[in-house]
Amino acid sequence: MEAPVLNSANQQVGTRKLEDAVFGVTVNDALLWEVVRMQQACKRQGTHSTKTRSEVAGGQKKLWKQKGTGRARVGDRRSPVWTGGGVAFGPTPRDYSYSMPKKKRRAALRSALAAKLRDSELMVVESLGLEEIKTKALASTLGSLGVKSALIVLPEANDVVERSARNLPWVKVLRAEGINVYDILRFEKLILVGDALDKIQGGL
What we know:
Shape: elongated
Distance between the termini: 17 Å
Number of strands: 6
Structural class: alpha/beta
CATH topology of the largest domain: Ribosomal Protein L4, Chain: A
Strand content: 5-15%
Radius of gyration: 27 Å
Order of helices and strands: EEHHHEHEHEHEH
């Protein structure tokens, strides 16, 4: 398979080979779901916390005697049944992150790339043509490419592109080594700039 290579003016300037082992695989939706779920779990802070009856303020004295008052039996005012009391079985800080086998993660990444190619949402661009840090210039280039929402993947660090994209909420810039399933699926278009395609295919 081959993909057309475009310039910043949306004109074809060549073609690049797409490896069948990466872009020709069958899309596995269940595996994509698993990896996205793992990534979202790893992003959770897990800082939620409630106080138990041993942690809330208040005395520990029994509010009234057990028998003879005609009222329901009670303990201290820190009981969960009282307003301002502790919380029974409430959430406590925890780590939600977990990992998956490397083979499954790589297979999911290949599946996500194949899905973008299948849906005609993969673009290989020779260069974005930015000479200075300017958000308006990047937005104009993406407009020329007919892109509304995009994940831009660079072969290496590029301060001009990365800083130009920071104020565009519908654009995210990653380096080739940081490409992941969640971000590929979250944006409409996947734009591979320069040698990013070779780096991705070489790593898979």
